[in-house]
Amino acid sequence: MTQDLPRAAAAVVTAAHSLGLELHVREFPEGTRTAADAARAIGCQVDQIVKSLVFVADTDPVLVLTSGGNRVDVVKVGRERSAATVRKADAGEVRAATGYAIGGTPPFGHARDLPVLIDRHLTGFEEVWAAAGTPRHVFPIAPADLLRATGGLVADVTLVEDGPPVG
Ligand code: 5CA
């Protein structure tokens, strides 16, 4: 049912439906604007939150679905997209590419057909949570469904954090 949802969230449900997915959108009045906010509200691990981040590779927008605790390595995105320069999109570019504002950008159902790269780490969970069009709405999804709905490519696109020396 989409009748109680704001227009942006209802549009995500409709987009999912046309991709063969029935979304169960949850609203958290306390807000799910950032991955940390969303994990706190949902009560899941921050790495189970899907950050839907738009970058500009040379001149073209690309969506990078990133596990909540990870940071995107723009050099790796450049390699995947055969682009010389990659930078984070600004708020206006995110809106133009996706039709949604930062903080509510969903992983599919965008204004434009965007190439999608998916952080491999997301595929290790039974369920992950993504934004449903607003900074208060999220939905759970199995990684396999996320891959199918986005047509995304699973890749290594994140920074390797400093850990203990190996060997
Ligand atoms: N609803 C949550 C969890 S599903 C969400 O949308 N998280 S997010 O990570 O996908 O979107 C917030 C991200 O937008 C931030 O991590 C940050 O990378 C990016 N962001 C925030 N402000 C700006 C800005 N002014 N310009 C470009 N990117 C921004």
How many β-strand runs? 8
- Name the bound molecules: 5'-O-(N-(L-cysteinyl)-sulfamoyl)adenosine
Assess the beta-strand content as a share of residues: 15-25%
Number of DSSP helical runs: 5
- The average pLDDT value, as a whole number, equals 96
- Whole-Å distance between the termini? 54 Å
The chain-level structural class is: alpha/beta
- Poorly predicted regions: none
Q: What is the approximate shape?
A: globular
Main sheet makeup: 8 strands, mixed
Order of helices and strands: HEHEEHEHEEEHE
Question: Over all CA atoms, what is the radius of gyration?
Answer: 15 Å
Helix content: 25-40%
Describe this structure in words.
The longest helix is centred in the first third of the chain and has 12 residues, at 7-18. It is globular, with a radius of gyration of 15 Å. 39% of the residues are buried. It starts with 6 loop residues before the first helix and ends in a 12-residue tail after the last strand. The chain is an alpha/beta fold. Strands 1, 2, 3, 4, 5, 6, 7 and 8 form an 8-stranded mixed sheet that branches. It has helices spanning 7-18, 35-42, 74-81, 91-98, 143-150; strands at residues 26-27, 49-57, 60-67, 86-88, 116-119, 128-131, 137-141, 153-155. It contains 5 helices and 8 strands. The mean pLDDT is 96. 5'-O-(N-(L-cysteinyl)-sulfamoyl)adenosine is lined by residues 32-35, 38, 49-53, 88, 90-91, 102-105, 130-131, 135, 138.
